[in-house]
Amino acid sequence: DYVLDDRPLPSILFTAKTVNALRIDIPITPTVGEWVPVTIAAMQGKDERYGVMNLKQDFVGEVMLTPMDARGMHFPHRIMITARDKGIARFFVKFNTMGIHAIKAALCDDPRVSGWSNFVVVKNECDYEHLVGDNHRHSVPGGHSAASDAILWQQHYDRNDDFATIVHHVA
Prior knowledge:
It contains 1 helix and 15 strands; from the N terminus they run ββββββββββββββαβ. With 171 residues, it is mainly β. Strands 3, 4, 5, 7 and 9 form a 5-stranded antiparallel beta sheet that branches. A 4-stranded antiparallel beta sheet has the order 8-6-11-12, with no helix packed on it. Residues 130-134 have low confidence and may be disordered.
């Protein structure tokens, strides 16, 4: 235990009296036309040991929202966080266009206090899944793989991969 002048130190010490940042969370893969939940949390202080901010549960104030693409979504332009919300506002947005989206939130009375949401990849509603990423395997001779092309293609087939490549290593 830590002590100061023979008195134990508190295990949690809040020093911030105001909100320092806003945290905005959105599901990362919504579909065009789907209403998705969004949360905005009023954050304060910072735990120097872990770099984690603390939720300011007694915050009351108005937040202005600015999306990356205002035409790409239906959203409320302002959100009020009330005492009943305990520092977290919840609301819904609807994305109109495919692509990458994010929302910035800022306090109306002090726009310097702000935050960006996570980026979301909005997909179109269809029977096909849009795949992004790297789905390749390495084969011998040379290199670090110990599998032949035939084995690697069979593995892709067995995993039901929609697309794949085999990269040949040259010794």
